[in-house]
Structure formats: C-alpha cells, structure tokens
Amino acid sequence: MRWTFGLGSLAAVLGVASASSLANTVTVYNDPETGFTFSQYQATYSLSGKYITFRIAVPSDAQQNSQYDAVIQIVAPSEVGWLGLAWGGSMTYNPLTVSWANGGTAVVSSRYATGHVLPPTYSGATYEVFKTGTKSNGTHYQVTAKCSGCTSYAGSSGSQRYLNPKGGNRLAFAYATQKPSNPSSASSSFNVHDVFGYWTHDFSLAQNPSFSNLVTKNGGHTTSSVASKLRKKRIVAGEDGGLAGEE
Ligand SMILES: *[C@@H]1O[C@H](CO)[C@@H](O)[C@H](O)[C@H]1NC(C)=O
C-alpha cells in the first residue's frame, strides 16, 4: 500500500477534469471565539458536498524569507477519520499537521514524510493547542493551534523553504474515513488516505496585528516569552556565568 498524492484524488472523486477547475476561494473569517482573523478555505472532499474548513492566521509583522508562527484552525465533519494538512503542498518533505477527533476534543500530531509511507512524528514543527476553539461534538471536530515551524522547513533539496506571509501558498490536504488506531496518542499510526486535494491559500487575508496578544489571550505562549523563560532557567541553574545582559 503506497502513500501517494496520486491515487484517489479529489478530482477523481468529484468526477471533474482537474482539481484546479474546482472553486478555489479563500475568504476572510473573523473568529468570534478566539479573536483571530483567518484566511479560510473550504475543501469539498466527497460527493455529499460536505467540506473541511482550513483557516490560517499570521502575524502582520511576519517577514518574507524568515521564520514566523502561524495559527491553524480546522473544522472537519465527524466522518473524517484523520486529516492531514501539507504546508508545502505535497506528501513528502514538508510539515504535515495531522488531526483527528478524540472524545469531546481533538488531537494534533506533527509529522513529516520523506517517503510514501506512514509519516513519522516531526519535532521541527511544534504545536500549542488552544483550549478555546478545540472541541468536538456530534457532527464536527475543531482544532485551533499555534504552530512554530510550519511556515519554514527543509525541502527535498535540503535548502530552507519559507511560506510567503503576504501572498499565496500552495497547500494540500489528505483525509481518510478510518480513525487512527490509538486516537488518544499524537504518535498513533493511521492508515493511508482516501482522498487528497490542493489549493492556493492567500495569506495576505490572514493578517493579525495583535497576533501575540491573541496567542496569550487564548492560553498560548509567544515564542519570545518561551525563549526568555528558558534563559531565566539557565541563569538560575548558573550555566550562564552571571546575570549581565540578561533580564
Ligand atoms: C459542532 O461543532 C462545529 C465546529 O465547532 C460547529 O460549527 C457546529 O455549530 C457545532 N454543532 C452544534 C450542534 O453545536
């Protein structure tokens, strides 16, 4: 069984000539619950006309060709067993945000594949899952998380790739109806996907001037405050050789 974005394509499932002929509309969504402004794409994945919603929020001061955090929000019908978002638009050599429902909540798993096999867990992208905006009910599950490491990554050539914080980025998703074998664990294995699709996601509609404040408001930490906490710990442990220049 091969894992490839080539079988069971969205276009084949929907019976159209190519995925690019599908509506590719990215719109602004202001989330009343978390306060983030997201750019949103609704991916139709089955003949039932049901869709999976992908939302992305970025800091307004994010620069091109540099690392920045992003907040991802996903809303998926309960019949979705697991769902993967590929930040570089392909199965291999890019961060994969895999998620699934688990009881009354949902799980996010960081993955990265170098071959067409079950993607192993990936420490190059880390997530802070927000309590606000992460839940599941009888019909849908929803995940909201800050990702550090999703918008830049080593591509297949080994060189660093960056998603454009002000423009369009090609993303992809894959999903399967079968649930992971151990849904309470983020390192659970899961079976090959049934369907995939891709689109261009406009990050210029995802701008948040108060990104760090909103991260904190939703119970997360900003990257700089985590770094300064680590520095403080080192100072306490006496590994820094003194307090000079540290706050
Ligand atoms: C179930 O959850 C989804 C996603 O959060 C939400 O859009 C929907 O309104 C909820 N349905 C009910 C009946 O609460």
From TrEMBL:
Organism: Coniochaeta ligniaria NRRL 30616
Keywords carried by this UniProt record: Signal
PANTHER family assigned: CELLOBIOSE DEHYDROGENASE CYTOCHROME DOMAIN-CONTAINING PROTEIN, DEHYDROGENASE, PUTATIVE (AFU_ORTHOLOGUE AFUA_8G05805)-RELATED
Stretch forming the signal peptide: 1-19
Span of domain Cellobiose dehydrogenase-like cytochrome: 29-212
Phylogenetic placement of the source organism: Eukaryota, Fungi, Dikarya, Ascomycota, Pezizomycotina
Name under which the protein is recorded: CBD9-like protein
A Pfam family per the record: CDH-cyt
InterPro entries named in the record: Cellobiose_DH-like_cyt (IPR015920)
